[in-house]
Amino acid sequence: MTHRYVYGVMNDDPVEFETDAVGDADRVYTVSHRRLNAVVSDIDTTDPEETDEDAQRHDDVLREIMDRDGGRTIVPMQFGMAFENDRALKNVLRGARPAFRRAINDIEGREELGLKIVREEDAEVDTDALEEAIADELESIAAQSVPNDLFSDRLVLNRSYLVDRDERERFDEAVSVLEDEYDDLMFRYTGPFAPYSFVDVRIGAQQ
Amino acid sequence: MFILDDLLIRPFVGIVDTLHTMALSEMYDIEALEAELKENQLLYELGERSEEEYRQRKDELEEEIEIARDVHERLASGRVEVKR
């Protein structure tokens, strides 16, 4: 267990806690370089395999940090970033410092929510009109949003929203009003997640 | 352009081999399989698929994806034998 598995990067105070971490580690802590703290656990490989269990643990650790102290901000990494040692990781923190700063700034105090709308089999849906109606209600509350892949022909909308924690209640309510209004469609409203869809810091290639 | 490029780079590769390669990549379409994996998950979450159906389909699809990855790896390394 001599390598470092990275969950995300933050500039709040360091953390340390015991939990079920990726790769059967049991402790999560931070490796710091000038007030940027990478949240890590120890791991015995630099190329971890993405099992369902470890993907879940990765998410759980990020959630745990987001829920701390009334809501902390962490730039989430995708599953699978592991570094040889502290030095390699600190080099990346140094090199990608401006990118991390920008990302932290974008997501500070915000969380990601997902909305998928699914039609009944064989039902006809005017997707353009629906998209517009949804946008009218939700885009003004969300700080940002991005479209996601329509991976099934049953999906008529698949979007991720970045929402201020303070606006969360209003957003939930708007979704629920829409859900009542479109009762022939199925809504799958998920989250909150770490804002994966709204940060674009790639550090894997530099390890 | 795929065929042309491929033939220019490897002139000794016959057109039949190239078409065979293309057919194989299409048959083992990783993206389509991954999309179906996500659809399976979604339909389960919405309660349209039972846990048993969901698990069974998930296992099947994961196996197919693994096979497809293997085929693509072999195609990329030119280790697929073309028999005529």
UniProtKB/TrEMBL annotation, chain A:
GO terms for biological process: gas vesicle organization. It is found in: Gas vesicle. InterPro entries: GvpL/GvpF. Keywords: Gas vesicle. It comes from the Archaea. GO terms for cellular component: gas vesicle. Coiled coil: none annotated. Belongs to the gas vesicle GvpF/GvpL family. PANTHER family: PROTEIN GVPL 2. This is Gas vesicle synthesis protein GvpLGvpF. It comes from Haloterrigena salina JCM 13891.
From TrEMBL, chain B:
It comes from Haloterrigena salina JCM 13891. This is Gas vesicle protein G. Residues 44-78 form a coiled coil. It comes from the Archaea. Keywords: Coiled coil. Pfam families: GvpG.
